[in-house]
Every structure is written in structure tokens, then in C-alpha cells.
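Journal club prep, notes for RB
We'll compare a predicted complex against what the paper describes. Inputs for the adenosine-5-diphosphoribose case:
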Amino acid sequence: MSNEESLKKATEIVKNSEKIVVFTGAGASTESGIADFRSEGGLWSRYDPSIYASYRYFLEDPSKFWTMHNELVDIVVNAKPNQIHYAIVELEKLGKMIAIITQNVDVLHKRAGSGTYTNLPIYELHGSYEKLECIRCKKEFLFEEVETKSVKYPVCECSGYIKPKVVLFGEPLRPSVIERAMNACRSCDCFLMIGSSLLISPANLLPSIAKESGAKVIFVNRERTAMDNIADLFLRGNGGEIMSELIQRL
Ligand code: APR
């Protein structure tokens, strides 16, 4: 099917849907200047995730994690939402959405204004960079409160390591967040995935949960994903262009 045909079909599906779940991955933020993880030149081609993003490794020596994280956060803090984030805001304004589920920690959905027009929940499956926590005493900090650049790694007054509340490899997702996200997938009529390789579990189980519950499943992605067999429609290309075109046609 050509992209034009897929776009027509996607427009029809979205027009007829009232309970859309939008699911985003790192590909939703590349047009904001934040590199994704697994594309050519992505973060994991420069930093081995089994060292730099592993919870076990963090417990041994947090300095490697912080080297990578400081670099990422410098970019994230200065990034602005893009056409994808704003198109999702338009879907919310049309009263068509029940949830945003994101694997991204960059809070660009919130910055674009998602959640301010309705009570739309944003489930940040992998946390966000904005909050940090001492892994020993569990004291919470805001991003601005912790100096991370002039030290090898930040340490709490109790001498525990401070870690952003992002989910590293080897750490579980917060049960309340993943459960709510799964429930949204069970009750949606359309599951719209934008910018994910769908390689990482349990997030990548969500499209099939939606599909099994009767939802239409649309993927918008530059490359093939690990779950293409589930998609009713695959729109291949840049999410910004595709989502803007979709919104115009509604
Ligand atoms: N428009 C559409 N698709 C895009 C765009 C774009 N502008 N830019 C990139 N993509 C696609 C890529 O082709 C790729 O398939 O987005 C996908 C991004 O995949 P990953 O880099 O694997 O990111 P993601 O799926 O979000 O990773 C999941 O893995 O590393 C962990 O915790 C990290 O949350 C992350 C999780």
C-alpha cells in the first residue's frame, strides 16, 4: 500500500475513533534534535547501554551513567517540541484521546501542552529526567536542585547515590504506570505508535494488547519495527510530516 493510501485509511480510522492511545518512542523527538537510541549514529552506537544504562553497573560506579546522562540532558533541556508533539495536542483538543504512553524521558509532550486541554494522562513508562532520587534514603530532588556537572556523580547527604527517576536496563517499570498504560490499551479503539523500534519489553507488548482488545493499530515510523505484523497500517517516513498531514485531513 502506498503512503497516500495508508494516509487516507489512517485518516478514516482516526475520524471514526474516540478513544485513541498515542504511544511514542525516541523517534518522536529526533525532529526536536534529540538523537534516538538505535538509528545509525543513535545514542547506543556511542555508549554501550549494557555499561552506560545498566542499573547493576550504576550501583558499582555511577560515573559512566552520569557522563552519558549529562550529555543527553543538555540537549533535552534546550529541545523544543516538534510537529509530532503538537499534532498529538490537536488530537487531544478534538476530544479523541484517552492516553499518551511514552518511553521518552524528555517531557516534550507536557511542554507541547498535552494534558492541559483535557485530563489526558501521560504515562511516562521510563520516567522523566526532571525528578531525581537518592537510591538509599529515597529523598526526592528536582533536576535544578542537583549539581551534576562539577562532580563525578552526585551524592545525597546520607551518602547514597542520586539517580534520575529514569528506568535503566535491569530495573523494573513502576507497576502503577505500566498497569494504567495497559488498561488504556485494553479500552482504546485506536493505537497510534510514533517513532519506536518496539524492541524493548514490556513497552513493546502494548500494541498487541490494544490489537487483541479490538483496536485498530497504526504505526508511524521511519524504519521497520519488531512488531510490524500487528499493525493494520504502517506509515513510513518522518513523523512530523505524516502527523501534520493527518491532522490537516481530519
Ligand atoms: N519519524 C518517525 N520515526 C522516526 C523518526 C522520525 N522523525 N526518527 C526516528 N524514527 C524511528 C527510527 O527509525 C527507529 O525505528 O524511531 C525508532 C526509534 O527507535 P529506538 O531508537 O530503538 O527508540 P525507542 O524504541 O524509543 O527505544 C525504546 O529503549 O534504549 C531504551 O529506554 C530506552 O526508551 C528507550 C527504549
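Talking point for the session: The two ends are 20 Å apart (CA to CA).
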